[in-house]
Amino acid sequence: MNNNVVSRLDSSGVSRAVGKYTHITKIEPHAAFYTFSGQVGADIDGNFPDEFNQQVNNTFLNISNLLKSIDLTPDHVVKVNIWSTETIDWDYFYNVYDDFFGDPSPSMTIAYVNALGLEEIKLEIEIWAAK
C-alpha cells in the first residue's frame, strides 16, 4: 500500500480468506470516497470478445483507465465486487488480479449470476476507492 488513507488489515476470529482478499479494509477519516459503476469486458470500441479471459483482461484495463482518469491507483481501491456468468478460471484470473492489485488485495465479494446487463457480458467488476 502506498497511501495513508487505505489500510488492509489482518483479522482474527474468522476463517482465513478463501481467495485473494482482505477481510477488513480501513478508510481514514476525511478521505474522499469514490464509488464506480461496474466495468465490463468490452474493448475501447465497445466490442465484447467471446473468450471469457479476454473479457477479464478488458475489464481490468477499463478499471485501470477509470482510476487513472481521476488520479487514483489500485492502492486506493477498498472493495471489489465481482459478478460472473461463467465459471472463473481462478489461476488466470488471479494472475491478472495480482498484477493489478498486488498483495495484500482489497476486500472482495464474488457471485455467480445467470445474466448481466447484456447477453454478451460475461463478467462485471465494481470497485470502491478512497483517497
UniProtKB/TrEMBL annotation:
Alphabetized InterPro entries for the sequence: RutC-like_sf, YjgF/YER057c/UK114
Pfam families cross-referenced by the UniProt entry: Ribonuc_L-PSP
Superkingdom of origin: Bacteria
PANTHER family, alphabetized: BLR7761 PROTEIN (PTHR43857), YJGH FAMILY PROTEIN (PTHR43857:SF1)
Name under which the protein is recorded: Enamine deaminase RidA
Originating organism: Lacrimispora algidixylanolytica
